[in-house]
Amino acid sequence: MSKPIRGGLIVALVAGLALLTVVVAGVGYRSVLAAIGAIGLSGFAIFTLYWPLVLLVLGLAWFTAAPGLPLMRIPVFIWSRMVREAASDVLPLAQISGLVVGARAAQAAGVAENVVFASTIVDMTAELAALLLYTLLGGVLLAIQLGGGPVGRNLLLLITAALALLLAGGVAFVLLQRRGVGWVGWLAQRWLPDSIARADAVTAALDAVYRQPGRLAAAVTLHVLGWLASGVNSWMALRLMGTEAPLWAVFAVESLMYAARSVAFALPGGLGVQEGAYVLLAPLFGLHPADMLALSLLKRGRDLVIGVPTLLIWQAREGRALLSRAVKPAPSPDA
């Protein structure tokens, strides 16, 4: 890792931790600890065991974006999505680390490189489109909650404008995907002699997906279900804490929080931004900031409980694969 990247990472971590500290201090750590304690170990176990179901849906979405693979490959994409999420949530790097590690896990399981990278690009596109729809739902619910006054109207206009910009960016991302892969191959040609051919293979796989718009529609639908299932998980945690939170209010807060977190993608795990968004949005929907901050910390605990063993298993598999290649006898000169 280069010094500028390492320095930027340190700055991002310090900024995130500082923001998290300010948010916890503003809400009051005693009330946050009380809310966390209310869920108990059994409640936290229920909250955590539900999450792999969400990852299953997200793995299915990724598989849907991969052209020409048999159904028996579905577990590979579910596992690779788990590794991607674990790397994004646990490793002290930006979201790109999760994409790289998840792609590596899929390749190690025997999925062709061009299919892995093309399906990852399409899956990112589908997830962005689903997030836009989810954010739109949260914006509409927030506007309804604030009423038809000038504040509600202005906020709705602001959210609509922001969504329009995000949508324009998403469309541009889709249109530039094919050309962008070619550019990467051309730039990498000086280091990797076969990089243009590899980029062409990824482009061909992308074309194969986009010739089947039903695949993209199915991936977007599955990602929308994944976002909604994630909201249900948060609602469950609040109920287990004893908080009577309406499901629609949780959907609204969750959707807007994830939109804010996606903007702060440079911060590892949205550290501090996630907590700050929860605290700011909670009162707008009649929710207590301490409960939402406790929810955020419970999520981080859940991510560690699931993510650390997932990364350890992935590392063990990688180690066995490297060892097997190292001890494989060299071919005979006469062969």
Describe this structure in words.
- The chain contains 11 helices and no strands.
- The longest helix is centred in the middle third of the chain and has 39 residues, at 150-188.
- The two termini are 41 Å apart.
- Helix 2 crosses helix 11, helix 4 packs across helix 5 (113-146) and helix 10 (273-281) packs antiparallel against helix 11.
- The chain is 81% helix and 0% strand.
- The chain is globular.
- It has one domain (11-317).
- Mean pLDDT is 78; it is low at 181-192.
- By secondary structure, the chain is mainly α.
**Percent strand:** under 5%
Major pleated sheet: none
What share of residues is helical? over 70%
Q: Specify the structural class.
A: mainly alpha
Which radius of gyration do the C-alpha atoms yield?
22 Å
Secondary-structure element string: HHHHHHHHHHH
In total, the number of domains comes to: 1
**In DSSP terms, counting alpha (H) and pi (I) runs of 4 or more, how many helices?**
11
Strands, total number: 0
List unreliable stretches of 5+ residues. Answer: 181-192
Note the gap between the termini. Answer: 41 Å
Mean pLDDT: 78
Question: What characteristics describe this protein?
Answer:
335 residues; mainly alpha; 11 helices; globular
Show the helix and strand layout.
Elements: H1 3-27, H2 29-64, H3 74-90, H4 96-108, H5 113-146, H6 150-188, H7 195-210, H8 213-240, H9 247-263, H10 273-281, H11 289-327
Helix pairs in contact: 1-10, 2-3, 2-5, 2-8, 2-11, 3-4, 3-11, 4-5, 5-6, 5-7, 5-8, 5-9, 6-7, 8-9, 9-10, 10-11
